[in-house]
Design a protein that fits this description.
The chain is 84% helix and 0% strand. By secondary structure, it is an all-alpha fold. The chain starts with a helix and ends with a helix.
């Protein structure tokens, strides 16, 4: 009932602002975006999508492609598309959002790095590890700028480690696993669950490094 009432009020507010202020007024655009958000909260994603696309189009027309508000609309639309399983469209939208945020607020801003992390995650899920790797590394470099918690940073490190491992880059993955274990131990304690998880991950990656070294040694000795 609460969502139904909120949706009704949002639709009324949007209609009033359209009539009084016009379709392209910033307050009308805010109402359009607010309604889309309420629909998303109710999992009415297919209804929210055209509203978000309209809000984006108005922002691009009135504010320009490199404005922070436009970049936010792009990022939010990408998330909506991803939630609907429209992965290809979502990746394109995240790329546009990343470019817009780079121009609007700079390449090291927390919002820019957040979009980079979202895009990296989509690539990771799709098994596109060479595309995910530089994006995750970018987030590692920008850790302080992102102002993320240790838990959030460690989650990104874990994905980077696995991204490297999936490509057979186990020596590099091992170095990151050592760094992650150190961070987890300092932040959560050596006996914490996170530290234990990275201890296991470090050991697993280390076994692959040792196996590769042994195979190389055997190959060298047989030639």
């Amino acid at each position: 009932g609460q969502f139904v009432e909120a949706e009704r009020m949002a639709r009324d507010a949007l209609e009033i602002r359209r009539q009084v202020l016009g379709e392209e007024h910033p307050l009308t655009n805010n109402s359009l975006n607010n309604l889309a958000g309420i629909l998303m909260d109710q999992h009415k994603l297919s209804e929210a999508e055209p509203l978000m696309k309209r809000a984006l189009a108005v922002c691009e027309k009135t504010l320009g492609a490199a404005h922070p508000h436009t970049a936010t609309r792009l990022h939010n639309l990408a998330t909506l598309l991803e939630d609907q399983g429209k992965t290809g469209e979502a990746k394109d939208m995240y790329r546009r959002a990343l470019e817009a945020r780079e121009k609007a607020v700079g390449g090291e801003h927390r919002d820019t790095l957040s979009t980079a992390a979202y895009l990296a995650e989509v690539h990771y899920k799709e098994g596109e590890y060479p595309l995910a790797e530089p994006l995750y590394k970018r987030c590692m470099v920008g850790r302080t700028t992102m102002a993320s918690s240790d838990t959030q940073h460690l989650a990104l490190m874990s994905k980077l480690i696995m991204t490297l491992h999936k490509q057979g880059k186990n020596e590099e993955a091992f170095k990151y696993s050592e760094e992650a274990l150190e961070i987890a131990s300092k932040a959560q304690g050596a006996a914490s669950e996170e530290a234990a998880q990275f201890t296991k991950l470090k050991a697993a990656i280390g076994s692959h490094v040792k196996a590769a070294a042994s195979a190389a040694a055997r190959s060298s000795s047989s030639t």
